Amino acid sequence: MTWYKKYLAVYEKPFNEAPQAVIAVIKENIRHLQSDHPLVSVVVIAYNEEKHLLANLWSLSDTQCKYPLEIIGVDNESADRTAEIFQACGVPYYTEHQHSCGYARRCGLAHAKGKYYICIDSDTMYPPKYIETLVRKLEQPDIVAVSSLWSYIPDKQHPWLGVKLYEFFRDSYLFLQSFKRPELSVRGLVFAYNIAYGRKVGYRVDIVRGEDGSMALGLKKYGKIGFIRKRKARAVTGYGTVGADGSFFNSFKTRAVKALRNAGNLFIKKEIYEDEDSNLIK
């Protein structure tokens, strides 16, 4: 059975339809996972994620990890029942009143007690060995951060074969890019780093997106950014911005053309990037 199949029972569903038995199991499992002296801080950021957060926390509650950890949440002042879900599942959370992923991740970083920060997106589900696999890489000498890969949930609009082809080409490109420009292969839903160095770099809060890539860029001066291709570290998520260009085919074509145009950059290091005006928060 696909490891995430059971979580789909509550994915994309309003909280009032969630079985109380499932909520009770999540709460109990998370209680057992929480440590007063964590090595790892698992930080879940959420903004109006009522229909996804429970599935996310359910997957995290099934974590199998030999390292002591804490799971904390950041509610980016949601207007739905996001905060209530954190409460019902027994997850300590903080409210960040300034809206953006940068502010939310910065809030989590300020409250994290561990040595390592695991970025978690609330619309995403994570396999049982996800956290342990990332931390094992972070424990290696000279590694200050790691990124991994993610898959999408096949549905009627996104057939299985098309999704797998898309993921294959995307993953191959990100892997090649990770050698010279690892900061561009980082995505917030599958990213982790050393907290001490992360606090020195800090999160940018003046941009709409790219706060994690910016963090990775700053971390490079302290060590290497590892890239993990193991299935144990592959998350599963919804389609998000993949459908922003219309059909799934158009999305694939748009990204493929952009990747081909930038193929030469795969072999050149870069330390300074210019911000696009459209990505700046006015």
UniProtKB/TrEMBL annotation:
Keywords per UniProt: Glycosyltransferase, Transferase
Cited InterPro entries: Glyco_trans_2-like (IPR001173), Nucleotide-diphossugar_trans (IPR029044)
GO MF entry, a single one: glycosyltransferase activity
Segments forming domain Glycosyltransferase 2-like: 41-168
Family indicated by similarity: Belongs to the glycosyltransferase 2 family.
Identification of the protein by name: Glycosyltransferase 2-like domain-containing protein
Organism: Odoribacter laneus YIT 12061
Lineage start: Bacteria, Pseudomonadati, Bacteroidota, Bacteroidia, Bacteroidales
